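Re: weekly structure request thread

Next one in the queue (276 aa):
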Amino acid sequence: MKKLIIPIFEAHKDKFCTESISFGLGLAKQFDAEIEIVHIMPEQFKNLYLPANNETVYDTQNATIAPVSSVDSMVKNKIDLFITKLKIAIRKKNLDIPINFSFSYGDPGTELINMAWKTKADLILLTQNTENIFRHIQFETHSIPICIVPENFQIKSDIEKIVFATDYKETDEDILLDLYKLFDSQSIHYTSLHIDNKNAGNWDEMRMIFPDINVEFEVLKGDNICEEINDYISQSNANLLAINKVPKGIIDRMFNKSVSEQLLKTIEVPLIFFSK
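Done, posted below.
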C-alpha cells in the first residue's frame, strides 16, 4: 500500500469526511503510504458566479483575507485551509505523512475512479455518509478496492486482523492474494469467513479452493448473514471486513440489495469492497 485516495464531496457544507481521513492517516502511518485528497465538483458549478456574496476566506498562499467570487473558488479555499490545518496537526504529532490535493470537475463516481487511476492509488477511502456516491461507481470498469469507513468511526489501533467473507467463488483466492499485497504485513491475521444456513461448513472444500494461502478458515451456521458477520467481527476484535463485489451482486444470496445496504449501515469497522 503506497497511496490512498480520499474524496471530499461536501466541502461547501464544511463537511470534510473526517472519518475516512482519520482512518487514512492511521493506514498511512502504519504502512508508510501517502494520501491524495480530492474534490470533484459537477461541471455546472464551474466558475458559477456568486452575486452579492459577502463571504470571505483566508488565502493561505498570500496570508490575506480574500472575497469569494464563485462556488468552486469558495470550495477550493475551504479545502485549502482545511488541508493546511491538517498538515500542521500532523507535524505537531511528529508524523511524516505526505498529503497532496487534487481538484476536478465531472460526475463524482466516474471522475473518482479516473483520478484514482491517474494518481496510481491502491485504495479509495469513503466515509459512510458518501455511500450514495459509492452506489454510482461501476465496479466492472475498475479493480481498485474501495473502503467504506463508518460514521463516527475512531481508529484505536493498527490493522491486526482482517476478515474476508467468502462463498467459495473462484475469484476469492485472488482477493485473498490482493489483501496480502495491499497490506503487505506478516503481523496481520487473516480469516476467511463463510456463513451457511444448513451446515457448519466443508473445510476440505475450502482448502481445495485456497491451497496456497496461509489463512484461517471459519464456517458458521446461521440464517441472518449480515448479523452473523457483525457478531463475528465484534467477538473476534477484527479491524476490517473485506468482501467481493461483482456487477451482479457479491455472494449471490448474501449480498443482494437489502443485505448489502444493511451491511453498509450496520458495520462497525471499515468495509473493503473488491471487484473481481
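Helices lie at 18-31, 71-92, 108-118, 131-135, 172-183, 203-209, 225-236, 257-266. The longest helix spans residues 71-92.
Next request, please.
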